[in-house]
Amino acid sequence: MHMMRLVEQGLARISGASKITSGVGDVADFVLSLKGIIDLAIQGVPQAALPWAGVCVGLQMLQNPAKATASNLTGIAYVISRMRWYCALAEHLLSKENVAAEDFETVLDQMENGITELYKALLQYQMKSVCSYYRHQGLVFLRNLFIPEEWDGDLKRVTDAETIVRNNATQFFQEQTRSSLKDLVSHAEGLEKLLGDIRQDLRGFILSQKDASRDQIETECRRDLRVVDPQHDMERIEKIKDELFDDAYDWILRTNEYAEFTNWDLDYPPRRLLWIKGHAGTGKTMLMIGLIRQLSHQPAALSPGLSFFFCQGTDAALNNATAVLRSLIWLLLLQQPRLMCHLLQKYKESGANLFKDKNAFFALSEALRNMLKDPQLSPVYLAVDALDECMQGRPDLIDLISTSLTLSPHVKWLISSRPEVDLAATLRDWDPNCLVELDTQRLEAPVNAYIDHKLTILNRTKGYSNSVFAQLAHEVRKRAENTFLWVALAFKVPEAVSKAHAVKVIQEMPPGLSELYNHMMARIEERHSLELQDCKTVLAVTSLAFRPLSILELSVLAGLDLEAAESAVKMCGSFFTITKGTVNLIHQSAQDYLEKNYHRLQPAGPAPTHREIIERSIDEMSARLRRNMYNLDVDSFLPENMTPPDPDPLARIRYSCIFWADHLCSVPSNLHPELLVEWMNDTGKVFGFLNKYLLRWLESLSLIGQLSTGLFTIRKILDVAQSQPNISPCLLELLKDAEKFVFSHRSIMERCPLQIYGSALVFSPTMSETRTRHWKERLPCIEMATGMKDRWDAHRQTLEGHSSGVFAIAFSPDGHTLVSGSEETTIRLWDTATGIYQQTLEGHSAAVTAIAFSPDGKILASASKDTTIRLWDIATGTHQQTLEGHSAAVTAIAFSPDGKILASASKDTTIRLWDIATGTHQQTLEGHSNIITAIAFLPDGKVLALGSEDTTIRLWDTATGIHQQTLEGHSSFITGIAFSPDGKILASGSWDKTIRLWDTATSIYQQTFERYSCQIDIIIISPDGNIVVSASDNQIRLWDTATGIYRQTLENNRWINVVVFSPDGNTLASASNDQIRLWDTATGAYWQTLEHRCRINIVAFSPDGNTLASASDDQIQLWDTATSICRQTLEHSRWISVVAFSSDGNTLVSASDNRIRLWDTATGACRQTLEYGARIKAVKFSRDGRHLETDRGLLSISSGASGGSGDQEPASGLLFVEEEWVTRDGKRLLWLPAEYRATRVAVRGNTVVLAHRLGRVTFFRFSFD
């Protein structure tokens, strides 16, 4: 402390002198700064040069005192601060209490000596400074003019001593920490024995989760979500590229960026993203594999989870944002299955289409955001490699990454990409410290280590001498330019040459990836002409393929036999790798090179290769496609993830079936119109293939789950054909018809492939090009089918899925989506292009009564009988908000033209206007005296029209809510209203069977359209044909059939449901509610009343007339007609639709829903139950008693079930029509589309006749020879 006071007093003493010295130095500095100018000025004055030189020397001397003073003042400030620091720290550093073991006392003594030397240096500097301060400052100034004090050297002795102390302290604490860690490890090993398998790593944990038993719906959801197993994909990529080499990636584990990224300690600033950026070939993918392995090998119980994906630009299935998201979520759910709830509800609504339709990315994004916001989310890394190879949806994916970082602190992203993906410019809140750039400086050591590794492996097989080995190492390092891929490619060559030529072939290789590819291509071009052509063909085909090809597929597309294709791939080995029979380009940069230098493969460009691929594909498909490729039954439904037979008959042509038309569309029509005309004329390849093999091609697509691709393929070819002037008209007609064929029958074709030759062909219009050209390929059992419509009409497709009545439908503004609302409370979304069901929206608690899209198509509004309106995000299917306020069912809704206001009408007779942005109620319009049934906005949004059950239409000002006018004229309630586009005419429809057009300016109706209807009564004829009976309300009338004369009226006191004659015609039975009356047809008197316990639906007499069967909802009663006594009561579980007696009266048959029962009339026992797929309305026994004749066809019954002899064989070969299928002996034969499902059926032998709702009748004759 005393020394510090001396220093402070000394500094105060020389403060004035210091200022003067500094001022003199500043003047000298200024003058010397002008030296150059003065030198130029006196060049022409020799006599001034010598004096000026003397002045310059003097000025330089004057600088010395100022420099010395400044150096001392800087140094003394530093010394004082360090003296205070070490005084405070020394006691702690040298305390014996901080030493954990005796081993460290020697180290502590050494550290004490270092601190002593530091103190000496600090004190000497201060003492020298004090001495200087107390001298005469004039003498100090003069001395410094000639011999300046070495203050900088004195200060360096202080800093050197300080460095020694710091190093000693660091070493001491490292050793002490290591000793403590050993103790911790020893303690942890003891805990491990107690905790068991807590060290199971993430990889093992994920594998165990794959095998874990889950709820069935969760298992199905996880299966449909999966695109590829990223772990298997990583193994495949490693085999394609090279085995992972630790020294090539572990350098990043020692970087600050990685340390901060993997630090989840909340006490540190979070590093939420790590971006690895590098050019092609810099080892990004292998680095990512290394990091993923490093993170995967952490204890699963103690470390964050890990979900990852490898984008691959050459594979269309793995180069899009939806595939990235599906795989990330799939792995995340394996590790954290509790998050499944955020996806499961959507999956229950939409099934597998949730992950495949055009909105899949947005639906999955919503699910992932909800998972990340879940409080139970455990920390997780999400990793995406080669983001630059995500060709579709990359901007949306980057936006999701950015958003996710704001949702939860428990997620971190690991990304790799080329520099062209600029995350820094697109991510919000970008932090430069998140970037690891693979530049020359970072890669030098890893690449050199990789070179050493490759040399060592090569030397094991080649056994180079030391000099050759050293030369190889030198030449490779000189050319590699720190590029991993260059090294990997370069080492493929010496492996294939002798030791003597190894150095030479490396010396021939140029540095740089592009230059190396040029060199590789040049070596291929040196081959024999035949080999060269094979190599070029293989390279050309592979570079144009839309996905990696199997060696079988490649041989087809290249026009080579299998052996030649394999040989060509081997000769081009520097460009290819083969994994499990699949040929892959070595790297995305190889694909880029081949595309850029395609002229070296084919001087005329890609068009000729596309042509060859198309023609070879068509030829091979024509040769190999046949009906029933997989030997399935005609009713076989394809199982999920079906395994093809081995060998797979589609293996050679799988790629061709899917992509042949994509190559056709890749030929520029403006550059090569002659090719398109050649392919598409009447004798061209395309027309010939579709004309002959269309159905077989569609079957193959169905078998591999790509039927929708076939529909899009037909549309692509049609678009190309329609753009050319000289295309065959026959081809255009065929394509248009094929599109309608696939679109109309897609539902059954993709589920049951062989029904392409059955249902799809049979129920196409008789004039359909597809049907007429391919009728000979129908299922062999179909001999004849008539009664179908002649031509395709406006009806394109039937969408099935609702389990109850559909009350509302609406198209999205872009026409791509159809929405339907049902009584079952659900809303379904359909893709209008394919008819594919997309998803279900659930939330209403009562029937959906109305739906409407906002003008921009982003919001869907649904109204319900539950009195609410719900708003939905159409992209994600999520519920946004619920509008509440009506007191009764909402009957109609409409958006204003600008989409800002929603109008809703209700049975509470009011209409409400809602602000869509806020969901707030703006105003209520009242005035109608009954339920409002229809709403429409004027096109400018200023007027709202309302139709009501009070028969009027009212017009309202939407801004003020003022009623403007009332339109009157209908005599019944309004069913619908609509404005003309110019708003001058309003059309209204009413239950009075009229449509009226109104002038909105004058309120006068301009025109009325009317229609009429009629009524139908119940009529039966007596068994002898002499009497006609009609029943209406509570009266029965009898008529003479010969004369038409009315005979008598039978008055009943209740509404009549059923009327039936006894077999002899003498008795008439009428049923009404819970009572049956028996009438004498001769006198008109009723002579018996049978009281039933509930409403009677069916009445039937036994053949002898002694027994009457009456059926109610779920019960049959058998009555003795002579005594009115109920003999038997037969209990059914469902509503009974029909009953009939056997010819001997011993057996009664009854039908309810999809079940038929045969009863013993004497005992009431059930003899047999038959299950079927349709509702039976009529049934009787055949004459021989071996089968039942129903209104849906014939059903075989078991021996003795009809009461006949027990040795009678059941009938076989019986045709029956279920709701959706024509069957034979219970085996499904022909699927019935919705519009051809029968209301009535007649079957005779092998002939089936179907009657349909709209009056159409279809005939079928089958042959089973």
UniProtKB/TrEMBL annotation:
Lineage top rank: taxon: Eukaryota
Keyword Repeat (UniProt): yes
Residues covered by the NACHT domain: 272-419
Repeat region (WD), residues: 799-840, 841-882, 883-924, 925-966, 967-1008, 1089-1129, 1129-1169
SUPFAM superfamilies: P-loop containing nucleoside triphosphate hydrolases (SSF52540), Quinoprotein alcohol dehydrogenase-like (SSF50998), WD40 repeat-like (SSF50978)
Keyword set, alphabetical order: Repeat, WD repeat
Chain segments annotated as coiled-coil in the UniProt record: none
Keyword field contains Repeat: yes
Listed PANTHER family: TRANSCRIPTION INITIATION FACTOR TFIID (PTHR19879), TRANSCRIPTION INITIATION FACTOR TFIID SUBUNIT 5 (PTHR19879:SF9)
Record's protein name: NACHT domain-containing protein
Organism, as annotated: Remersonia thermophila
